[in-house]
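Figure 3 (text version): structure tokens given as input.
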């Protein structure tokens, strides 16, 4: 199993967009839509876990997420297939996104979630509550990357 970091137009971009589109999670289909429509900035990335070319999990490092915010970048669309859960893959995906953000010159990353626990274990702290574009209440978390240096 390996992690692949992709930017728009990379050779595996369309193949993984197709696999991401087929996951049962609605947000995954939205990420695939963004990928198909080349709606990414130059620095934004999609990170996938692949097992012999098959999608295991993914996340993205993006300027914006599902809530209106001036903060950036967001680690979003974190997903791991059911059969691979419990192996720490989400943590590895988030960690890779944080490392990329740091390499790009960001000193903080943000996550929007309704879940409690996973991201706090990774050092994220609650700093706000915001409604997403569907009217759902979400937690906004942040993590300083300065401590990672």
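Below: residues designed for each position.
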């Amino acid at each position: 199993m390996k992690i692949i970091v992709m930017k728009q137009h990379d050779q595996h971009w369309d193949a993984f967009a197709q696999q991401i589109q087929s996951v049962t999670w609605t947000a995954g289909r939205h990420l695939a839509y963004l990928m198909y429509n080349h709606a990414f900035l130059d620095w934004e990335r999609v990170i996938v876990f692949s097992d012999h070319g098959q999608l295991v999990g993914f996340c993205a490092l993006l300027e914006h997420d599902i809530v209106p915010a001036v903060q950036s970048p967001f680690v979003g669309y974190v997903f791991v297939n059911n059969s691979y859960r419990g192996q720490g893959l989400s943590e590895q995906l988030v960690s890779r996104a944080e490392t990329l953000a740091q390499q790009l010159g960001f000193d903080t990353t943000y996550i929007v979630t309704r879940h409690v626990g996973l991201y706090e274990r990774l050092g994220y702290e609650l700093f706000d509550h915001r409604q997403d574009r569907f009217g759902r209440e979400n937690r906004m978390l942040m993590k300083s990357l300065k401590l990672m240096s």
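The chain has one domain: 2-148.
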